[in-house]
Specification:
Elements (H helix, E strand, L loop, with lengths): L8 E7 L12 E10 L2 E4 L14 E7 L2 E9 L4 E7 L5 H10 L3 E4 L5 E6 L5 H13 L3 E7 L4
Parallel strand pairs: 1-5
Antiparallel strand pairs: 1-2, 2-3, 3-4, 4-5, 6-8, 6-9, 7-8
Length: about 150
């Protein structure tokens, strides 16, 4: 979680659509969020599988069967979400450090080699794209653009 310890954190449920290969490996994901208004929440961790949302986005959610269920992005934050699947699991710590040096935050999934990356608006997309493509070309990883910043 990226917010302060005094903020009111809640879990939001995101329903996921699995492809024919069973990816993502779950039908739902929960994300931490901070309550910012009636039915409004600020995303406070990097999504591993949900698409279309990023850290600090303000989203709407409704209570359904005792769970807060994500409905829509109300105000995009300007952050983007990427996911990198690192092929050599021993390289994962170096990959975390590489993206940290570029100004991104990262989180490690329970799936070996999967890293979720938060790209703040201040990060240079030219440099980031160069690094992402170089890693892909070197067969170090593949990546997914799960949520690109919207203005």
């Amino acid at each position: 979680m990226t917010g302060s310890s005094t903020a009111q954190h809640v879990k939001l449920l995101f329903h996921l659509e699995q492809d024919e290969d069973g990816y993502p490996p779950a039908s739902a994901e929960t994300l931490w969020a901070i309550t910012v208004g009636e039915g409004l929440y600020k995303i406070d961790n990097i999504p591993f599988f949900a698409t279309g949302v990023a850290v600090e986005d303000i989203v709407s959610a409704e209570l359904e069967a005792g769970q807060l269920v994500y409905k829509d992005v109300v105000h995009p934050s300007g952050h983007s979400t990427l996911r990198v699947a690192v092929y050599n699991h021993e390289e994962v710590p170096r990959v975390h450090e590489l993206f940290k040096q570029l100004g991104c935050a990262t989180e490690q999934s329970h799936l070996r080699g999967l890293i979720a990356i938060d790209v703040p608006p201040s990060v240079s997309w030219d440099e980031l794209r160069r690094v992402l493509d170089m890693g892909r070309e070197q067969d170090r990883w593949d990546y997914e653009e799960a949520c690109l910043a919207r203005s």
